């Protein structure tokens, strides 16, 4: 199989070439001095070219490069290559079996031919280049699943994270464990706490620590707090999602490199940022409409448009879902205008998720309750869990919404607090949150006491005046709900006990 190694936007086609051949776009990506990264395009005919995506190629324990455009009848002997992500192997899976085998053999793929791994004896090349991306580590373990080769069963993420904020009296220490337990929903973990406890910064820092430094600008690297994620974090890519004005997720560095298929707006390597913040750091609400339109590019490229329509139809209705995903700009713009601000956010969120997610992804979502009414928020959680299940992926959500907490089993909840001495704490719940009364969740977890009054405080004051549960209940024009009635009867019992 022939190869064209080039630095141009497209591989030049000459009379020397015959189909099928491979174009290897050679970008300027540098892995600690190792230059081995390419973007592969398989030219099947003059009318069909398949973007396979990024891979790394080594030859004789060195990176493989060409100074000028080169047409090769074959890659040098003893080359070894590894796809940068699961998406690479998923696209190869869709090739004709004979073409699939020819291509994998021609590039010396180490997933399909494990013995090729032995050709890379220089540990620095292996660790600093081939496994530089979290997605590459996942592809090495799981890529074989898609190409009928050996693969590893990857356990749910289970890792420790530590972050030290400047000025804080201690570190945020948290253990994230998505391990299954008897069939309980385990795809989503919740960080819940009041504002100012460090939830948003924790997610932002985790996103940064999960990626290589080269993904971000130097200014971003210098601004991040000291943090550490345990080495056993195994994910294919990280998707950050935040649509509130206090978004702190790091933006990826801009790149002039040719984008691999399936990677769109504000993406780099295994990292994608979905938020309202523009490149200059300002917040622009109009970004939602822009992202909704651009997010359809990777959805269409990965043949997932029908899947996105199904997701959006569960959140809105079938007609709206089809209009929002229309390839006609005017139809799509009219559909967007008919949505509320919250609905637009949800459409943008799921368009980005469906377009970018791959097996083993980790989603970091900050305060999804922003601008959403409770009914839509509940639907979002259900839709999110369905997508995570389908793509064998996981999410960490930072929130202060008891509605979200009510839908997550306690073993997958972490409560974030910070005391008057500026000492942070991240601890598991000590009671079951799943299906619990919203008022109880608000009182127990968010600690709304003292100056922050809820309905119980009002009932306490009324009972002090009327001394009778029935009398207080009759003050309201309609029957009180069960939580309010239960609280009044508890006050009455307490009063009787004191009288005795």
In short:
This protein has helices spanning 86-93, 97-106, 123-130, 134-142, 199-209, 218-223, 287-301, 305-315, 318-324, 329-337, 341-356, 374-390, 402-405, 438-445, 455-466, 469-473, 482-499, and strands at residues 2-6, 21-26, 37-43, 49-59, 62-63, 70-72, 79-83, 158-164, 172-177, 188-192, 226-229, 238-242, 267-268, 271-275, 362-366, 394-399, 413-418, 424-428.
Describe the fold and architecture.
With 500 residues, the chain is of the alpha/beta class. It is built from 17 helices and 18 strands. The longest helix is centred in the last third of the chain and has 18 residues, at 482-499. The protein starts with a strand and ends with a helix.
List keywords for this structure.
single chain, 500 residues, alpha/beta, 7-stranded mixed sheet, 35% helix
Write the layout of secondary structure elements.
Layout: E1 2-6, E2 21-26, E3 37-43, E4 49-59, E5 62-63, E6 70-72, E7 79-83, H1 86-93, H2 97-106, H3 123-130, H4 134-142, E8 158-164, E9 172-177, E10 188-192, H5 199-209, H6 218-223, E11 226-229, E12 238-242, E13 267-268, E14 271-275, H7 287-301, H8 305-315, H9 318-324, H10 329-337, H11 341-356, E15 362-366, H12 374-390, E16 394-399, H13 402-405, E17 413-418, E18 424-428, H14 438-445, H15 455-466, H16 469-473, H17 482-499
Helix pairs in contact: 1-4, 7-11, 8-9, 8-11, 11-12, 15-17
Largest sheet: 8 strands, mixed
Shape: elongated
Task: Indicate the structural class.
Answer: alpha/beta
> What is the terminal-to-terminal distance?
94 Å
Helix content: 25-40%
The helix tally amounts to 17
Give unreliable regions as ranges. Answer: 257-264, 448-452
**Overall mean confidence score, pLDDT:** 87
- In total, the number of strands is 18
- Rg from Cα: 27 Å
Q: Largest beta sheet: what is the strand line-up?
A: 13-14-12-15-16-10-17-18
Strand residue content? 15-25%
